[in-house]
Amino acid sequence: MLRSGICGAAFAAIFAASPAVAQDHNWSGLYLGAHGGYGWADTDYPGTPAHPTGAPRPDLEGSLVGGQVGYNHQINNIVLGVEADYSFTHMAETARDGNYITQDHELSGFGSIRGRLGFASGNWLIYGTAGWAWNRSSHNQTCPAGAQFGHCRAAAAGPYNLSKSETETGWVYGAGVETAITENWSLRAEYLRYDFDSEGYNLGTAPSGVVIGTKTLEHEVDVVRLGVNYRFGGRSDHHPVSLK
Description:
mainly beta; eight-stranded antiparallel beta barrel
């Protein structure tokens, strides 16, 4: 419900900001912009049982902010483009695994290089997008001192505090709508889905000498964001709407 509400609010904001003037806008050219939004990330451990018999699956979420640069080429009503972007974020959650083990998960940023295919009408552009993506994520596992039994007791592996950061890669796809508010400036709302490949996080060896080994994680991220773009050398042919 929260996700659908944020999506609806984002697109409603774009429609409310659209000028009450019909424009034959030319989307061709280089553009530079910024964006902000909100994201949700599902964490999985490929090959392990589902919680509660295995490791808990933390659900990460948080706000994000970043920038994008791209280039469009318009042919009649068809707009072809390419875009690169990066978002800074802090999606994090701490999960208790077993009797004493604590696991911290974090996504600190993700980016993409995508192709875009759109249809232009007046001052509006509706588009789909897909391409290659990457993220920066970290995994931490802690056993506290004083554990009385299980994996974390002093006679076994604990105590320890081990972390590992990795870059995950995968694919991203989505869709959006953009409206030109002047010859050079435009607003957009879009949804993106990131599917990252599984990645191993080698936590190494605890001070006790016990090998903790590699934890394999997999992330899927959903993002809704609003953006603003400035297109260099923009030109639009304006045709005011007749009220007669």
